[in-house]
Design a protein that fits this description.
Largest sheet: 6 strands, mixed
Low-confidence stretches: none
Oligomer: single chain
Helix content: 25-40%
Radius of gyration: 18 Å
Mean pLDDT: 89
Number of helices: 7
Number of strands: 10
CATH topology: Rossmann fold
Shape: globular
CATH superfamily: P-loop containing nucleotide triphosphate hydrolases
Length: 225
């Protein structure tokens, strides 16, 4: 479904260039659940954002459903992200002045659904994640776990076939982390492709396939890793 081909990413910093990804090649098949492990600063987020059509690589190509995403124009790439990819971020990225319902409606509005369709779909998703009674609450009025569930509902709004999850349990306590993992596993069982970046080996162990990112390069962990 998604493939990186000899992807290198360099950032220019005041102290000089930083190599975040170093000639990375990997392929994730449709319906897989893949974890990418590695310590903070190893390039996991850069890799996910590159796979998600958000950060152009310095070198190499990224293919999604057979299309070279960085050869698309801006409008085509935006449509591909909107209709195919769902992002789960550690920091949730909710709009602080919008309600839970309105946050979930954002991608539905961008997809051109009518206000009635937006509301119906958002209501269904918030009810699905157990927040049917928090529709009018703004992020500051929700617990951390509730904010993560709003973010998940927003991610699912346009029924993405690829979920890119960047440290999805990083800000959650163990019970809420388990709940988030349950949601990801349920999506996987429904046929959604999941790529999850994490530094937690216990979380990574639930994936079908584990990769390790070290020094900007991808390696397959040994069975004992």
């Amino acid at each position: 479904m998604v493939r990186a081909e000899n992807v290198t990413k360099r950032y220019q910093r005041r102290e000089g260039p930083v190599l975040a990804l170093d000639d990375v090649s990997l392929e994730v098949a449709r319906g897989e659940f893949v974890s990418i492990m590695g310590p903070s600063g190893c390039g996991k987020s850069t890799l996910l954002l590159t796979l998600g059509c958000l950060i152009r690589p310095s070198e190499g190509k990224v293919w999604l459903n057979g299309r070279s995403v960085y050869d698309l124009n801006h409008k085509e790439a935006a449509a591909l992200r909107l209709n195919t990819i769902g992002f789960v971020f550690q920091t949730f990225n909710l709009v602080p002045y919008l309600t839970a319902l309105e946050n979930v409606q954002i991608p539905l509005y961008l997809s051109g659904l009518s206000p009635t369709q937006q509301r119906e779909r958002a209501l269904h998703l918030l009810d699905k994640v157990g927040l049917g009674d928090r529709l009018s609450h703004k992020p500051s009025e929700l617990s951390v776990g509730q904010q993560q569930r709003v973010a998940l509902a927003r991610t699912l709004a346009n029924e993405p076939r690829l979920i890119l999850a960047d440290e999805p349990t990083g800000n959650l306590d163990p019970a809420l982390a388990e709940e988030m993992l349950d949601h990801l596993q349920e999506l996987h069982r429904e046929g959604v492709t999941v790529v999850m970046a994490t530094h937690d080996p216990r979380l990574a162990a639930h994936a079908q396939r584990r990769l390790r990112l070290v020094g900007g390069r991808v390696n397959v962990p040994s069975a004992s890793a």
